[in-house]
Amino acid sequence: MPVENSGLAVLSDQLVLVTVLLYVFAMIGYALDLGFGRPRSRARAAGAEAGADAGTEVRADAVLATVGGGAAPPAGGAAGPAGASAETAEAVEAAGRDVPVEKEPSSWASRAGTVAVVLTWLGWAAHLSAVLTRGISVDRWPWGNMYEFVVAMCLAAVTAFLFMDLRYRVRFLGAFVTVAAALGLGFSVKYLEVQAGPVVPALNSYWIAIHVSAAIIASGLFTVAGVCGILYLVRKDTALRLPSREDLDRIAHRAIVFSFPIWTFAVIAGALWADKAWGRYWGWDPKEVWAFITWIAYAAYLHARATAGFKGRAAMIVQLIAFACLLFNLVGVNVFIGGLHSYAEVPG
Amino acid sequence: MSETERTGRAGVAVETPSPAGQKPAVRPASFGAVAWARWFWRTLTSMRTALILLFLFALASIPGSLWPQRGIADAKVAQYFRDDPGLAEWLDRFWLFDVFRAPWFAAIYLLLFVSLIGCVLPRAATHLRELRRKPPAPPRNLVRLPHHASFDASLTVEEAAARLRARRYRVTTGPGWVSAEKGYLRETGNLMFHVALVGILVAVAMGALYGYRGNVLVVEGEGFSNTVAAYDRYIPGQQVNAESLEPFSFTVDDFQATYIAQGERRGQPLDYSAKLKVTDAPGAAERDYTLKVNEPLDVDGTLTYLIDHGYAPTFKITDGKGQVAYDGPVPCLVAQPSTFTSECTIKVPDAQPQQLGILMGFLPSGVPMGGEWVSVFPGAANPLAQVYGVFAGDLGMGNGRPQSVYQLDPESLKKMKPLVMKAGELPAGQKPDLPGGAGAPVTQADPLAVGQKLDLPGGAGSIEFTGVKEWVALQITHDPGRMPALVFSALAVLGLVLSLTVRRRRVWVRVKNEAVATGEPDGSAPGLRHIEVGGLTRTEGGDFGEEFAGVVAALNPGVKDAR
Question: Domain coordinates of chain A in residue numbers?
């Protein structure tokens, strides 16, 4: 009988609530930044214009920037050539910043954005502590049931966003990622929570650390991509305050390119575990079927994005179908179908 | 099959590999068979078709998760046939209980794989040619490339080539220019990934043809040796020879199940372990092995898994002539997994003067509750055997009809005489027509504890509950495809990572002929030439900007010299 530390388990539950609050406050900050800060699309348009007006001079600057170790933006094309890198887009954005606009954007709004980032990091720390204390309280990996899995998946999504933000400036996604994480956490607390405790023998294996962790990380990244996909379809070309379609497309693609191999690995690790636990590496258990469908759907996205005629909107829709499959595999299979993975312990 | 390569912009002639799969399939004007075949092949191997097939593949898998599948959930399939035979028959006609063995499912994935092979083979040929070819000459105007720089330096073509080679570029030179290319691993990885997928398919097929699977139930103290006859259920692949089974054997000495004893999760299993004595081959030394859920026994690639467990109470049955007609364990089926309330059937064909059939309930932790005895915990804390019915007569075992060992034959049961009954407590489907009045059976209310004996009325003998053992259900699997499948899966992941992270990129350097500044004749100050560098990557994303800056810095160490 493993030692259960109920004090830590209670602390974990409280930390989850703290996390939700912090994410909600952060979301408000991001929203203020988006709503009252500089409209992002206008800045980009300004950058592109400046590039076109300045002509060769800008190009010369770009050359210098390149030599100096920076990035070389293609001459005045916000759309960019097919080979445009993130740096190129950022450089265009930076160029946009240097262009004087009639009215300075309100600085309190951008400060709200900074505060939001800090709040997100605090929330992330609370979130991480919640997962850790849950794990310590039951002396095992803290993703043995659906509640724990969803909490960890939200953590992975926020982590993916925060680390992306360090590198690629994706603050404009903040409001949407934090709201998704807060909703996910709220949902799991309300509908999925089960008392902390040991797992059934089949789950008691080191493979839980490998298979489930990989699935969580991949799901978190897919969530970020899914958020981008929804925004992409929701925004109209005139909605200047929302992030631009190119940005959303780029970030979604990047997240999926990163997470697709991880998901592949998660499926293979699952097969290896099934080989140890159930006597076959692949048996078309409903969870396996849907993991496989999800994998195919993301593979289809990667192919579609590289195929003329499917690029952009169509590829984004494929991506969202894939994300729907992922969510169905997470929730639907456990709730409606069952199967060997049904010890995910959905309450009720 | 993965990515269409992008042609270069700004007048850059980048040779795009154009395998058959990427060309638009033009419908032939003349209707010759060869032309049609070519059109069909082109269409099949086109990216669009591959995409559609991928979608179909995913869609076709969905019914396999919605309806129970044979071989995975046989009991649920049987339930479907009982509940709605008409519907079930129709579903069965469309193979919806065998989706993953259905011809239409096979058609989709075989087409997909043919399409994949048709796409990968020409691409592999193209890639091999590219690997041997030198990087192409630079475009006329390097400044129009997405990445470019120009500066004056004392750089010669040879020096530039050497510096690019040092950065592991493949380099070729011409009059006044250097052309360098890197990132061939992208396409290599892409091809490797797709070939590995075909490999996985082959490995799975190999496992299905040359592997076998079997189930057996073993009671503590009993043994198993790996022969076809020893299995309760044996499912061989088409190419498996019964002689080729790995000749190992083992005895199950002990089985232990551990449960949570208190709290909200009371009764949840924590651990199962079976102590085995294994003989790897006839004549080999015995070794101990602890079989657990995630730790199968591996004898030279044949794996034994612990799948299920249950109780096998032991009984000593004495017949009407005073002889011991049965003495041993009776494996019982679990009726209620949370408490392990089990149902047992004992057939005593050796009993004299009449055969005996006994139906019993087994309660591992029995307590009285409202006049009934129920089990409240899966562990054997207070094992009780509740007699449901004892019948005398012909068990019907010699009539040639197959019988389940876990059930009395219902036809025969109708003709048997009940000796002892627990009123109204027979398992469904096993309730005989009870004779009333004279000759009515003795009723038995309280269950037997270990060591207790029930004397049958009319001197028909006795039943003694002598002890409790447990049984384990084992699955024994031999799948020669599993290691190849693992290797191909690993290759697939490696190929995938390469094809998604490596980028094909080209760098050109042009050294202008005329010197912009003449050097000192004595060589103390080198002459400066105008240098142009252009860079191109054909796949988006990543940090080529940074890398390009690094290349420029390497070509022009004195950055201050840059114009």
Answer: 6-35+107-336, 42-98
